[in-house]
Amino acid sequence: MATDENEWLTVARMVEEYPWPEGTLYGWRHQGKGPPSVRAGRKVLYRRSDVERWLQEQAAKERAARVS
Questions:
Q1: CA 66 to chain centre
Q2: Residue (of 11, 16, 64) closest to 35 by Cα position
Q3: Is pTM beyond 0.90 here?
Q4: What is the C-alpha to C-alpha distance for residues 23 and 61, in angstroms, rounded to an integer?
Q5: Using H for helix, E for strand and C for coil, what is the string for 9-56?
Q6: Which DSSP helix (H) or strand (E) runs through 63?
Q7: Cα 7 from Cα 2, distance rounded (Å)
Q8: Which of 21, 28, 34, 67 is deepest in the core (most CB within 10 A)?
Q9: What DSSP character marks residue 8?
């Protein structure tokens, strides 16, 4: 399935595609953690490319922590 890196994902779509519960996403947003997000009216949106970049950064941090 081809994906558009600039596609905006709603919280519901994030829950479908990634292993995070809705509450975790809202908690991360409130705490300033997790993938970057924006509010558009009443919706919270995530750009797919930002989510993928954030995941890669988390994996790199985890690898670096194991090495040190």
A1: 23
A2: 11
A3: no
A4: 24
A5: EEHHHHHHHCCCCHHHHHHHHHHCCCCCCEEECCEEEEEHHHHHHHHH
A6: helix 48-67
A7: 11
A8: 34
A9: E
